Amino acid sequence: MADQAQGDKLQVRLVTPERELIDTAADSVELPGRTGYLEVLYGAAPLVTELGTGLVTIHGGGGSDERYYVAWGFAEVLPNRVTILAEKRAKAGGDRRTGGAARVRAWPEDVGPGWRESCTV
Fold it and tell me: What domains can you pick out in the chain, each with its CATH number?
């Protein structure tokens, strides 16, 4: 089943209309808010925010960072949990620490124009 958040870890869930993709403990998560990126840490104040198109980065989940592109949705932030409800998503590749550009491995064609420009790393 899902990893349980322990100590100062966030429980992070990424959900699309099709299924739940991620349910893991993490140190922090970066989200593409509609007006800019935000990073959520354990103990954050409750918040509901609209997501734009961009990169979700889950830090410390499963030992390494995981990155996903999302297109539109909402995020609910609670002190110990973040739930990301995304309309569209794709697993991101590449590693910005080594200079490699993030790539989308698979992305539905119906996301709309301009998504690639808003997802650059």
Answer: 10-96 (2.60.15.10)
**Amino acid identity for residue 2 in this structure:** A
pLDDT per residue over 15-29, tens digit each?
Answer: 988 899 889 999 999
C-alpha dihedral over 79, 25, 52, 109, to 10 degrees?
-160
Phi, psi of 111 (to 5 degrees): -65, -40
- Whole-number Å distance between alpha carbons of 109 and 86: 16
Is 42:9 a contact under the CB 8 Å cutoff?
Answer: yes
Q: What is the pTM of this model?
A: 0.70
